[in-house]
Design brief:
By secondary structure, the protein is mostly helical. Helix content is 52%, strand content 5%. It is built from ten helices and four strands; from the N terminus they run ααααββααααβααβ. The strands form two sheets. A two-stranded antiparallel sheet has the order 1-2. It starts with a helix and ends in a 14-residue tail after the last strand. Residues 279-284 have low confidence and may be disordered. The structure holds heme C.
Length: 284
C-alpha cells in the first residue's frame, strides 16, 4: 500500500502543489501592486525549476533501486537523496588503491548534490536575465536611490506639515495669514497674562526690547514651547502644534516697538540680534 502511495505520479503532484502554494504566498506578499507579466513568468520559472530539481532527484534514485520489505518512508527519502550503497555491498565499490591502510569507496554523487548543482546553474541564468538583461529586478543601488527618493518625499511632507519645526529650525513668519493666525492663538491663550496688546500683567511686557529668556524667533519659540513652569509660564508644546507655536511667536515679535496702553517695566536683558547668524539661539 505504502509504495503505491509513494509512486511517481502522486509524488510529483504533491510537490507541484507545495511549490505552487509557496509561489502564491510569495506573490501575494508583494500584492501592493497587481502582479505583472514578469511576475507570472518568474513564478512559473520557480515552479518549473523546483519540479525539475525534485523530479531529477527522484528519478535518479529509482535507477538500480532494489525495493526492500518493511522499509520506512524515511529510509526511502534518505535513499532518494543520497543513493548511498548499503554497507553489505560496500565491497563492490571499494577501489583498488590503498594508502597507509586507508581505502576509498567509489560512491555515487548524491542526487541532492547534483540537483543543487543544476539548480545553481538555472538560478544563475534567472539572476542574469532578471537583474542585468530585462532589469525586472532592482539592483542594490537602484533600491537605495528609490528609498532615498521616498525619504525625501516624506521629509518634504513633514516640513509641509510643520512637524519638523523646532527651536533650531524655526524661522520668523511675516505673511499676513500666519500673523493673523498667530494673533488668534495669542488672543485665545495668552492675553490673560500678557494682555491683549502684549503690555504684560502676570507675564512680562512682550513689546519692548528686553527679554528674560532671550529675543529673536528661536528663543521666543523655545520659551513658548517649553514654558517657564516655575514662574507661571505654561509649557505650550502639549497644547499647540509646532506650526502654531511658530505663528504665535512670530505674532509676538511683530508687536516689537508697539506702544501698549499700560506697559510693564522692562525685564531681563536688552536683546540684540547676533550679527553673524540671525538665529539668536543663545539664551544666556
Ligand atoms: C498663566 C500665565 C501665562 C500665560 C497664559 C502665558 N504666559 Fe507667557 N509668561 C508668563 C510668565 C509669568 C512669564 C515670565 C517667566 C519668567 O519670569 O521667567 C512669561 C514669559 C513669556 C515669554 C518670555 C518673555 C521674556 O522676557 O523672555 C514669552 C515669549 C511668552 N511668555 C509668550 C507667551 C505666549 C505666546 C503665550 C500664549 C501661547 C503665553 N506666554 C501665555 C505667564 C504666562
Amino acid at each position: 500500500m505504502r509504495s503505491k502511495f509513494f509512486n511517481r505520479f502522486n509524488f510529483i503532484l504533491l510537490i507541484s502543489i507545495l511549490v505552487s502554494a509557496f509561489s502564491f504566498t510569495q506573490a501575494a506578499g508583494q500584492s501592493d501592486y497587481p502582479p505583472g507579466y514578469y511576475d507570472i513568468i518568474a513564478v512559473a520559472l520557480v515552479i518549473i525549476v523546483m519540479i525539475a530539481f525534485l523530479g531529477l532527484i527522484y528519478f535518479e534514485s529509482r535507477k538500480d533501486r532494489e525495493l526492500k520489505q518493511g522499509e520506512s518512508l524515511w529510509d526511502k527519502v534518505k535513499y532518494m537523496l543520497t543513493r548511498s550503497t548499503p554497507i553489505e555491498k560496500e565491497a563492490d565499490i571499494l577501489l583498488e588503491h590503498e594508502y597507509d591502510g586507508i581505502r576509498e569507496l567509489d560512491n555515487r554523487i548524491p542526487p541532492w548534490f547534483n540537483g543543487l548543482f543544476y539548480f545553481t546553474i538555472l538560478f544563475g541564468i534567472y539572476y542574469l536575465l532578471n537583474y542585468h538583461v530585462f532589469h525586472t529586478g532592482k539592483l542594490q543601488y537602484e533600491e537605495y536611490e528609490e528609498e532615498m527618493k521616498l525619504a525625501a518625499m516624506q521629509k518634504a511632507e513633514l516640513i509641509e506639515s510643520g512637524a519638523m519645526i523646532n527651536e533650531e529650525t524655526v524661522t520668523m513668519l511675516t505673511d499676513a495669514a500666519s500673523l493673523s493666525a498667530g494673533k488668534e492663538i495669542f488672543k485665545k491663550n495668552c492675553v490673560a497674562c500678557h494682555l491683549d496688546d502684549g503690555g504684560g500683567l502676570v507675564g512680562p511686557n512682550l513689546t519692548d526690547e528686553y527679554w528674560i529668556h532671550g529675543g529673536g524667533i528661536k528663543n521666543v519659540f523655545k520659551t513658548i514651547k517649553y514654558g517657564v513652569p516655575a514662574k507661571g509660564m505654561i509649557r505650550w508644546e502639549t497644547q499647540l502644534s509646532p506650526r502654531q507655536i511658530q505663528e504665535v511667536a512670530s505674532y509676538v515679535l511683530s508687536l516689537q516697538g508697539t506702544t501698549p496702553a499700560n506697559p510693564k517695566a522692562p525685564e531681563g536683558e536688552k536683546w540684540e540680534e547676533p550679527a553673524a547668524d540671525n538665529s539668536g539661539s543663545s539664551s544666556m
